[in-house]
Amino acid sequence: MAENSEKTGKVYLIGAGPGDPDLITIKGLSLLNSCDVIVYDNLIPHELIVTIPPNIEKIYVGKAASAHTLPQEKINELLVEQAQQGKNVARLKGGDPFVFGRGGEEAEFLRKHDIEYEIVPGVTAGLAAAASAGIPASHRDKSSAILLLTAHGASDHEFFVDWDWVGKVEKGTVIGYMGVKQLPNVVERLIEAGMPPGIEAAMIERCCFSTQKVVRARLEDLPAEAERQDVHPPAIFIIGEVAELSEKLEWYNRKILSGVRIMITRPADQSKWIYRMFRNLGAEVIAYPTIKTVYNDDKEGWEKFIKSGGKDNWLFFSSENGVRYFFGFLKSKQIDLRLVGRYAIAAAGHGTLRALKDLGYQPDYAPGVSGMVKFARQMCQDVEVDRVKVIRVRGQLPHDNIEEVLKKGGAEVHPLTLYKTEYSSWHENEIRRLFMHPPNMIMFSSGRSVDGLVEILGQEKALELASKSKIATIGPTTSETVRKYNMEVELEATRHSIPDLINQIVQYYQKK
How is the chain split into domains, by residue range? Predict the structure, then answer.
């Protein structure tokens, strides 16, 4: 981390790999989580960005066809400016930064301005596309050479690639980037140069996403087949004998939720396990949190906690956030954890229970009761709460039904308000990407997350997105909020928990 603005920072040119966020290297991910600012491109998996610590500044500079946020020259200047302010900069690029990623130009500009930099290689899209489509880029019997090229500009007067030379390649694999629009020109030039028109070829759209599309055809038929199957950028074309192995070696889209896009709207810091679970089931995760939480410093609440511990007194947790902020504060302030041992612990909700167990705490009271009010009522029946002090760990609420129930049972309730919920914000290009590839299913785990979607997009755009998707909710209260905005609910969890909701989504697509 940068120590001060007088010290020049360092720029890390990091390859994120293509599609699947797990394809970034361990070193790359470590740098993302420890830098001061991230400058990132259009094709970066959104999950990588939203799960980065909130204190790290994030600057979007994505480039898409006919839509450049910043020209390359300005990006170069931005990297220098950030480093000169003493910041360590993660310049995050799709694939590998030195393979058609213009990383070389950025490195030259940094060197010219005496900015220290480091290259962190990534999995390049061409090789990843081949692997995910079941095409071995090299093969002892079919290909002893791999040629990576860019088809961008193939129809210009000045060709970037010597297609006449490429057309004479034998026993090799030609892998082309940025070639959707130029594919007919490329194929025509290659065949004119002598490449056999009947050689096997393939085009892979959105490689390493669950929704990747693989189009196979003879070289001369590939442009027409790609148009028939409506292939869009980003896509990679592969030409060579190895392409004929694709159907035989296909492996990628063979899971329960393969081809399904699921949008997760709950805060990213609570959702990493959900993202991973859905990806393990084959889904493409659309990580677009509509709400976020921030710490609230409740000095009076903390004072009550420190002074109120004693026999028969309770700590009441009802959310993962409460657990995270509570123990995070104790750790940051180096407060003796033995203070927690002076309380009995109540944990309401599956996520709360899991969060406590992850920290090594076994709650004293955690019945499998659905709904927070029902939980509080059950606790009043099962536990003697009359004249007992309860520290109620919670977020900011206009009205706390749990506190009300416990007080009616005779408890002395002291709220410890550790966080507040705010609406997220999305860059306009992130919204554009969302509508380019809309989700098949939107998952809401609270009414607040529904409100957040409408707040970010506006009701008209939110309705448009919902009309392209199915909606799944965690329970009746959330469903009521969805319907308030004239959106329809397709699925509702019966046990009002995230695992049950995930299970119902899986069953829904299994039936389909």
Answer: 10-123, 127-249, 261-290+424-511, 294-422
| Residue 316: closest CA among 303, 301, 328 | 301
At residue 460, the pLDDT reads 96
- The confidence score (pLDDT) of residue 4 equals 45
What pLDDT score does 2 carry? 46
Q: What tens digit of pLDDT does each residue of 348-360 get?
A: 988 899 899 999 9
Give bridge partners of residue 344 from the DSSP assignment: 314
3-state helix, strand, coil in the chain (%, to 5): 40, 20, 40
Contacts of 124 (CB under 8 A, 6+ apart): 15, 18, 95, 96, 99, 148
Joined tokens for residue 269: 């810091």
Are 221 and 206 within 8 A, CB to CB? no
Question: Sign of the CA dihedral 75, 51, 474, 314?
Answer: negative
Amino acid in position 324: R
- Residue 111 backbone dihedrals phi, psi, to 5 degrees: -65, -40
CA nearest to 203, candidates 132, 143, 252, 147: 132
pLDDT in tens, 203-218: 999 999 988 999 999 9
Q: Which residues participate in catalysis according to the annotation?
A: 41, 63
Q: List the single range of 1-10, 131-140, 319-328 with lowest mean pLDDT.
A: 1-10
- CA of 26: how far to CAs of 32, 44, 120, 121, 363, in Å? 10, 16, 10, 11, 35
| Percent above pLDDT 70 for the chain | 96
Tokens of residue 90, six digits: 């993660």
Give the type of residue at 340: V
Fold identical between 127-249 and 294-422? no
Q: Has residue 316 got a pLDDT over 60? A: yes
User: How confident is the model over 250-272, as a mean pLDDT?
Assistant: 92
**May I ask the CATH class of domain 294-422?**
alpha beta
Give the domain 261-290+424-511 fold: Rossmann fold (3.40.50)
The model's confidence at residue 333, banded by pLDDT at 50, 70 and 90, is confident
Which CA distances in Å does 113 have to 8, 25, 29, 77, 252?
11, 28, 26, 10, 44
Class of domain 127-249: alpha beta
118, 28 Cβ separation under 8 angstroms: no
Between CA 144 and CA 138 the distance in angstroms is 6
Higher pLDDT pick, 288 / 436: 288
Q: Taking the C-alpha atoms of 230, 231, 232 and 233 in order, what is their torsion angle to the nearest 10 degrees?
A: -170
265 pLDDT above the threshold of 80: yes
CATH architecture of 10-123: 3-Layer(aba) Sandwich (3.40)
Look at residue 64 and give its three-state secondary structure: strand
**Could you tell me if 133 and 238 are in contact, meaning their C-beta atoms sit under 8 angstroms apart?**
yes
Give per-residue pLDDT as tens, 414-424: 999 999 999 99
